Amino acid sequence: MFGDAVRVTVAFTLLALVAGWLSGSLLHLNRTDRAVLAIEFGVRNVGIAALLALATFQQPEFAAFGALFVLLQAPVLILVLLLRRYTQPIPAPGPGIG
Q1: pLDDT of 10 higher than 60
Q2: CA atoms within 13 A on the CB side of 66
Q3: How many CB atoms are located within 10 Å of the residue 52 CB?
Q4: Is 38 in contact with 17 (CB distance < 8 Å)?
């Protein structure tokens, strides 16, 4: 049961990242702005989901999914950012540097 919730949470986190990144691409944003938008998609969506779960549906177990989402989202985001950092080529120093 808990394993299923973790898998779904990680999948939603990755989907939110991809949706944010693609939205930034459609808006022709630079890489930094696309990364910010990707992270914001997940953070904003979990807040809205928790609010809807409690206020509209009166289902506290849905809010528990939102809490799990927040707890697992940070490690997934850190992993994605580290992968991005360490898989990009290191730029050559510019003139007058080094």
Answers
A1: yes
A2: 17
A3: 14
A4: yes
